[in-house]
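Listing S7. Sequence submitted for prediction.
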Amino acid sequence: MLVPSVAQAQVLINEFLVDPPIGGQEWVELYNPGTSDISLNQCVLSLGDNGQDINFGPDDILTGNGGGKFKQIVWGSDSYLANSGDDITLSCPSISG
């Protein structure tokens, strides 16, 4: 009996910067370790307890190439993350690769 295998796309929160130097910007970096592109459509990146979210649309693609690809999400000078501790989460109804 053959059991089909299902490939699961994977997105990792790889790195982030809070409390940047004066004039700098906070950012979060997403990483795709796979070989297939991943659509982030309808995914939400939640930035801490202050209700700041980044909503992704159909044009937000995290490319894959076997060596992995990064997507850095940068926002303006407003402080979204608490410097003393926050949670960063990526929620997706479904991630397709």
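Caption to Listing S7: primary sequence and predicted structure tokens for the chain studied. The longest strand covers residues 12-17. DSSP finds no helices and eight strands in the chain.
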